[in-house]
Amino acid sequence: MKFIKYIAVVVVGVLATSCSDFLEPEPSSAITSENYYSTIDELETALVGAYDAIQGEGNYDKDANHGVQYEFYITEMRSGNTATKIADPDDFSDSGQFEAFNVLPTNGIVANYYSSFYQVIFRANVVLENLSNVDDDTSAIEAEAKFIRAYAYFNLVRLFGDIPLVDHVLSPSETDTQFIRVDKNLVYDLIVTDLQTAVAGLDNTYKTRASKAAAQGLLAKVYLSLEEPDYVNAQLMCEEIINSGNFSLVDYYDVFYDELNSEIIFAIGFEPVNDSQTFSAQWMNQVGVSSGLNYATYDLVDDLNEFGGERTQYSYRQDPLHLTSVRYQCAKYFPNGEDGGTTNPHQFDTNPELAGNDWIVLRYADILLLHVEAIMAGSDQTSATAALASFQQVRDRAGLTDPVTEITVDDLLLERRVELAFENHRLFDLIRLGKAQSVLSAYSDLNGFGFTSSDLVLPMPQNEVNLSDGLMTQNPGY
Amino acid sequence: MKNRYNIKTYVSQKLMAALLVVTCAMATACDPSIDALAFDLPDANSQDDKTPPTALFTVSEGDDFLSFTFANESVSATSYLWDYGDGNTATSLDGMNTYPDEGTYTVTLTATDDLGVSSTYSEEVVVVEPEIPPTSIPVILEAGFDNGNDSRDPWRNSDLGGVIQITSSNGYHEGSYGAKLPTSGDRIGYQLIGEFTPNKTYQLNFKYAFRDQIEDANGSLNVAMVQPMTDLSQFDDNAMGMITFTEDVAGAGALASGALVFNSGANTSLAIFFFNADDEAYIDSFEIIALE
């Protein structure tokens, strides 16, 4: 009997001490998210993953995130700049809803962009959450992750208005944070502090990854987009980039077809075949799965013809395959630089649906025009010397060398339109400069479309509203 | 026999009754016409409207100061009535109005749903022709150095150099006193001033003089506007404008007028910074004005 007591004590002791390790063994031949991020290099692979989420998948799978490749639908095609090949107010397909301002909450493209960019935010948050696992100096990694997070939030807050603010990796029980929309000013607070960290912690090594100049440029635009714009700091950010001497304007054609040229500040990199995009093909006539997207409206073509100068010939071309009416295509992103010729169907040396054209997010001409906007500081016009100098640089490159002595808000909007057409700026420019309602309702009336002021923000995706179990509210008008 | 008859009667009576009930039921329940529902109470099982309309809009200025656009942000409404406060009304979804003149107008939006429930929201619109905002003129402390040695305090910055001396020598100042930079050239004046209006052209006026203490040396005086700085090494990057006077051109003895024109750029505060080299220099009577 005595021995049984001792044996019992020993058995209980063994059970109590050894169970936990035994039942949750550390895998010795596999990597888990819990033991992975332990060196700078490993954190960097997580960063690269976040860029991968911005790129999105280069295919047409409806269930896959397509990231920035779908951005033109929800920005350029809602701005009066572009439309489907045959614009039609009664076209209620997902891609046909944008041009006529008839976007439905069930639109799959809107949902795709929303989930793509929260995926970007998630991946950036994973990096930030694991910084403390590494003993080395992680400040550059932190700066880069915060740049990515700010870039994603800046796009989302401008497109959807109030949105859920997720600043850490969520656990499944945190449904409130996942679905409850917070005031957009709070989202902007996070964007500004993230970008300030990015400006302080980054250098100008990369163009397809975050850099100091990219953070400064994005921050300038953020300052100008605030409810109470911070014009002086926006001007300072632009001048930091201008005075750095690292960037210059190049020949207009080379901006788009000589990748990573000295005008590019930040671009989303793509490579043909293995890391490719589909939008270049989609914008042509029946090259992708669509019959033709992001075609220039007559409204845009008229402005380009009258005010574009030498930029016009490199901005659009008449669709050579569509013979029943006159339609215009974007000429800035031909797949791998090949315009397909005039044969029907087009002929290409490389696969146009696996195109490698980078997507330009920030370039020097954008910064010069933001500099003008910052100096204008909310007034109707400016003739300040510094503003005229920046404005003139952009026009000189386009061959419009007549000296400008005064710039009005409308001059600035027009210059941005013809300089940055097809680059997903127009909608945000109209909103930021307070002209969206008047310009877009006039355009809509002329074309029989259904624009109302509530169309300036997208609907929250209906599947998110449904999943939220009443926590997520819909935007007015949807 | 009698019993059997009874059973038959009983069965047939039951059957008849059952048939009658079924027929009646069918006659009432299966009648597809609306008449059958005529006696249903109209409000039976109906629910309260849990989403009554809420009227809301935001105002933004249009192409000129008289025209405004109104973005309708009402929820749960189907018809709208805009009263722009100047006698104009509209029933469109979004509003747009051009006012006849300056003034304060109350814009009222009435949003109504199909149950006839309505909500109103009002906001005042101030129509005023925008004035060109006046250029702000910063205040310079002890601009004339007329409080003797106390005048030195706003001009001190020991990170950049020694403090100025104060002079009362005849001919080298205006008013009671002026500032003096001795031959050693190691003293400076530095004062951070604001508010500047960004991107405006200003002119800094002052009086200055040289005294020929060292015969071989050509003395110089530099007056600059700089962004705030903590070390002389930042001078080249921070200078917004600088003017240099030399003894051989300006001569010695007589008090002369100097001016520095500069643009405030993206700054709301800037510092006046002056220093000399090689010979004794005097400076006095700072004043800042906006040009244009």
Automatic annotation (TrEMBL), chain A:
The keyword Membrane applies. Residues 1-23 form the signal peptide. It is found in: Cell outer membrane. The keyword tRNA processing does not apply. Residues 21-224 form the SusD-like N-terminal domain. GO terms for cellular component: cell outer membrane. Residues 350-478 form the RagB/SusD domain. Keywords: Cell outer membrane, Membrane, Signal. Coiled coil: none annotated. Belongs to the SusD family. This is SusD-like starch-binding protein associating with outer membrane.
UniProtKB/TrEMBL annotation, chain B:
It holds the Pfam family PKD_4. Residues 71-127 form the PKD domain. Residues 1-29 form the signal peptide. It comes from the Bacteria. The keyword Acyltransferase does not apply. SMART domains: PKD (SM00089). Transmembrane segments: none annotated. The keyword Signal applies. Keywords: Signal. InterPro entries: Ig-like_fold, PKD/Chitinase_dom, PKD_dom, PKD_dom_sf. This is PKD domain-containing protein.
